[in-house]
Amino acid sequence: MSLKKKKLGLIASVVFFALAIIIAFVYKNFFSRVEVFSSGKSLGVYSSVHNFNKAIDNYKSKYEDRYELDLVKANYEFKKSDKELRNAISEDAFYANAYAVQKSGETLYALKNEDAANEFLTAIENHYYSDNTICVKIKDNIELKKEKISLKDLRTVNSALKEVIENNKLKNDKAINVLLTKKENQEEVIAMPVESQDDPSLPRGETVLSMDGEDGLKAVKSIAYYENDELINKVVLEENVKKKAAPKLVLVGTRKALADGSFAKPTRGGISSGYGRRWGRQHTGVDIDADYGDAVYASDGGVVSYAGFLGTYGNLIEIDHQNGYKTRYAHLSSINVSKGETLMKGDFIGKVGTTGRVTGPHLHFEVIVNGKSQNPLNYIRGN
């Protein structure tokens, strides 16, 4: 009898324990308010785990219809809560059994299935393909791998293609590079040659265009190799000149400059009258006290622009030094050069005299800069 009582007591204990577990399970899942988390993010507060599971199943069905793929529930953590009820289920609560496009083991893009992933790779090649393309292939080692992918990381074929084209331009880590071989028939410009010819009539260093040139044109057949849109090599198969290039001819001056920019004293003697106001009017040069018949020399190289008698100057020589400077030599007894004659510094040009308005033999010497008279003593070297 005692054994029977013991058996009954044991059965009662087991039943009681089982009932306690069932009651705890039912309470927890049907009557206990909980806050649900996924990867640390709250998915809301629900009246029970059972009600959350009903809600998550509804959202799973909705998102599967929207994305046309199979979804996997994330791992959820339940915490007892006394907060207000709220539903915060989002796409972050699910993963998709999708296909990752990987390069060197790193996922670059994710698409909903294997067909979409292959369509994406084909779309990349087609983007760079043109009518003259002989061969096109993806350069990088690309693998497709089925993985659990967050919905926010999923791409459509078009959106992934747009991203990869931009990344290829930027040449960043998410680029998927394409190699292309193209047969090209192009017209290319033949640059005109430039020829130069020495011209002793021009000052040294001066250039003058003597004859206009013209670019030529040639037809070129080639095999071109590209990475994405960038040409990396070209093999020319055939060239045919359609129009020859005409050379441009440039004349280069070799004539040594007549003037060196400095002035020598044109004759011997001291300064008897300086530059400036004199006898109520401007004295536009200096008078050099020289003897009648003393030699007069070109103060610097140039071209004779005047040689003859000129009013109060008497016999006058003017030399244009062709650099903005002119010099004048007045009251000469003789003129030994002609207009247009080219002179070098120190060339003999005439003799001191008394022609024009003078009080005695001397040389009146002027320096004119850009049409205005200047004090010659500021220009004569070693005066």
Verbal overview:
The structure is a single chain. This protein has 383 residues and is α+β, with helices and mostly antiparallel strands. The protein has four domains: 25-89, no CATH class; 95-176, no CATH class; 183-255, Resuscitation-promoting factor rpfb (Resuscitation-promoting factor rpfb fold, Single Sheet); 270-378, Glucose Permease (Domain IIA) (Distorted Sandwich). Helices cover 20% and strands 45% of the residues. The protein has helices at 2-31, 49-67, 114-128, 157-170; strands at 34-38, 41-46, 71-73, 77-80, 86-87, 94-103, 106-111, 133-138, 142-150, 178-190, 194-203, 207-211, 216-227, 230-243, 248-255, 270-273, 276-278, 281-283, 286-289, 295-297, 302-309, 315-320, 325-335, 342-343, 348-352, 363-369, 372-374. Strands 16, 19, 20, 21, 22, 23, 24, 25, 26 and 27 form a ten-stranded antiparallel β-sheet that branches. The chain has a four-stranded antiparallel β-sheet with strand order 4-1-2-5, with helices on one face. A hairpin with a 2-residue loop joins strand 13 (216-227) and strand 14 (230-243). The chain is elongated, with a radius of gyration of 52 Å. Mean pLDDT is 89; it is low at 22-27.
Short characterization:
By secondary structure, the chain is α+β, with helices and mostly antiparallel strands. It has four helices and 27 strands.
Walk me through the topology:
Layout: H1 2-31, E1 34-38, E2 41-46, H2 49-67, E3 71-73, E4 77-80, E5 86-87, E6 94-103, E7 106-111, H3 114-128, E8 133-138, E9 142-150, H4 157-170, E10 178-190, E11 194-203, E12 207-211, E13 216-227, E14 230-243, E15 248-255, E16 270-273, E17 276-278, E18 281-283, E19 286-289, E20 295-297, E21 302-309, E22 315-320, E23 325-335, E24 342-343, E25 348-352, E26 363-369, E27 372-374
Parallel strand pairs: 11-15
Antiparallel strand pairs: 1-2, 1-4, 2-5, 3-6, 6-7, 6-9, 8-10, 10-13, 12-15, 13-14, 16-19, 17-18, 19-26, 20-25, 21-22, 21-24, 22-23, 23-25, 23-26, 26-27
Helix pairs in contact: 3-4
